[in-house]
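Async update (no meeting this week)

Hi team, since we skipped the sync, here's where things stand on the single-chain job. The sequence we agreed to prioritize is pasted below, unchanged from the tracker. I ran it this morning and attached the output directly underneath so nobody has to dig for it. Comments welcome in thread, and please keep replies under the output.
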Amino acid sequence: MKTKFFLAATLLLLSVNLCAQTSGKCGDNLTWTLDSNGTLTISGTGKMTNYDDSYDSPWYSSRNSIKKIIINSGVTSIGDYAFIYCSSVTSVTIPNSVTSIGDGSFHGCSSLTSVTIPNSVTSIGGDAFLGCSSLTSVTIPNSVTSIGDAAFRGCSSLTSITIPNSVKDIGSWAFMYCRSITSVSIPSSVTNIGQSAFGSCSSLTSIEVATDNPSYCSVEGVLFNKEKNTIMQFPAGKEDQSYSIPATVNTIYDRAFVGCSNLIDIMIPTSITKIGQCAFGSCAFTTIIIPYSVTNIGMSAFWNCGSLTSVTIPNSVTSIAICAFRGCRGLTSVTIPNSVTSIGDGAFLGCSGLTSLTIPNSVTSIGYEAFRGCSGLSSVVIGNRITGINNSVFIGCVGLVSVSIGNGVKIIQNELFKDCSELETISLGKSVKEIGAQAFSGCKRITDIYCYAERVPDAASGSNDSFKDVSRKAYLWVPANRLRNYQTDTFWGEFDVRAMEAESANTDQVIVKPENNTAEIIWPASGSAETYELTIKDRNGNEICTLVFNAQGQLQSIAFKAPAAEGSRVPEATEGTGFRFTVTGLDEGTQYDYTIVVKDIADNTIETYTGSFRTKGGETGFGSEVLISDGTVAPCKVFHDGQVLILMPDGKKYDMRGTEVR
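Output:
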């Protein structure tokens, strides 16, 4: 019985094979034949029939037997999905009569090792060579103007690709998963690079631009677009390098270079206005300069770029999107310009290398977990204009020592600084009304809490204690006129409540405390400040000195203006301590004008404060003589008849403009 069954099955298979089609039509004027050696030949004139991905080509049932494909001259197109999953094909001949390669034509031809595309072809369809995993080389002629979506996706053995200067459009996923490609040359004719075009090209180390387009020229490190009359300066040290992306491209689409884990250098031209979602996710470059033309950075644009150490964000950017720099653990510094109004959820989550952060006053909202796990952060300053901070923004920032929250924030959200185990000092602005559940839970080292709110804020208690694990022996510094309110509050009264000196409180204006020869000046912090420049003038408008302080209020430089002659006595010393400083060596009973100019990193003026003060004392008459190191009498400044004069050793007197007074 078994013998009869086996014989019947064998006869059935033999009859199927004998009935298998070996020739037929594949177009109005095209025929095909498949010989016993596995050679499929297409002959005739005109277009090949377009098939679909339901495997309806007439030779599909024999696809595993096809080893070689010959397309004779006269054939003008290769039909859609014509040779899909012909997995045994090792070579294909395409004649000069063919003008287009259809969608999915060679999809899944996993044994195909090389292909030469003739100069007659103008377009390569989507999925044309998708999954041709043995393809090591391909020649794309100058006649091709577009490379379709996923055209070479999954060609994992392809080591290099040269895109001719006729190509204008590189489709989405065009070279995705081409894991062996090490370099790509993109011509300046390209105007569009589609989403995921080079995604997961994990061996790609460099992208170069062929600048043979006559509309562009490179002179001494500057790429100049003669048609648009725009330039892009090469970063320092890279003057001899080409741009990675042509200046003809204006958008880097979603995931264009995601997963290019060996791409160590990329330069973005000023033609780019938008960087798409996850465009450079998991790339290996160390620095990135985003040009001033960019207005939009997409979600996760630089996600998981672990080698990135610095990034420059231009003033043209108005928002930092969700997870834009998430996982950039090597990022040590970032400057957020004062054009940015919002920072998205998880924007810098896991950026463990960040050491300090200043959020400018332009920012009005900070998203959920925006800086979670930034374990290297030691200080955070949040500007006065920020009104919204979402939950868990700084959770797990274990290196954070001090926090200053500006006057715009009304609610400290749940778990905002949870598990910031090194946090010692916090400053809460005067608008805070509510502190959420476990906002400072796990912050066991807090010793000082400065709360400037005159209305006692609501705080969570019990298991949701806003200050869970925080010692109640910590000092709570509050406005002097509200000391009693805090001391008698059920929650806040548990701390060691103390009154702040009035002039130590957050201020929106400059406070000056003059003495006989000195003046202590206290000024408001600005979250986006890079420098504070103080100028002091006398009543006649003569400049006495200019002092420059950094963003932390530390003195950086002093410039004295000697009014009459070298050696004239001027303010002797200046001490900078945070956001207050003391000018010494002033004259008694003298009126001075001051100007404080606050500038951002781009040297733009953010705020200007002006005012006057008068030192105490001041008796009419000449000042005492001062001896200098060689025993001679030094020039000295005197107050006489309502004006400041310089008295020289020879008895001559000069006014502050250097004019001799008779």
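Quick observations from my side:
DSSP finds two helices and 54 strands in the chain.
Confidence is low (pLDDT under 50) at residues 1-19, 212-242, 562-570, 619-634.
Reply here if anything looks off.
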